[in-house]
């Protein structure tokens, strides 16, 4: 039987989820990072709602395959920086994060987007936020096969055998007031939960853009 306490917690969680700020990554600027994020979310079932925990970042990196020195250092400039999802600056990061060698330029772009998002939306440590993607068409892991083409790694050793699971989340399309679109991933266990995004805003190019409809 559901206790009053459980119901209260559920109501509180719903309110929290509804008010979470959303950051949008433009995948035309950070395609490798989007690929890693999509792989983590669609293929490994990592969450799309994250909790900022910047003090944890260093320990998180040390706990996964981005631990320094990592396999990316010394690579050519198209893959010389280790990216991880969930982000190192979140409570969900650390052991089990999906990692990929990306161009350091993409890693600094994404870091810039995330830190200005944190500032603009007053996302403090302990606050939750959601992630969305734009311009992701054509990226394999964002809409196609989860078969690891060799660029995704969770643990350093032994070689990680990827699950090829595509039914954990479904893709929802946000229509934005700017006329553009963004993608969000909705857990199939919570179908319809992203309908709440209608009339909320997402952070895109350092602006708040209203969501007109969720398809
Ligand atoms: C999609 O990419 C184009 C070209 O890079 C860019 O101008 C546009 O702002 C991007 N749209 C979104 C919604 O990110
Ligand atoms: C969104 O805003 C419009 C215009 O203010 C309003 O008519 C509509 O009912 C709102 N929809 C939701 C789901 O809040």
UniProtKB/TrEMBL annotation:
Residues 1-20 form the signal peptide. InterPro entries: DNase_NucA_NucB. The keyword Ribonucleoprotein does not apply. Keywords: Signal. Residues 38-131 form the Deoxyribonuclease NucA/NucB domain. The keyword Translocase does not apply. Residues 101-115 have a biased composition (Polar residues). Residues 51-78, 91-115 are annotated as: Disordered. This is Deoxyribonuclease NucA/NucB domain-containing protein.
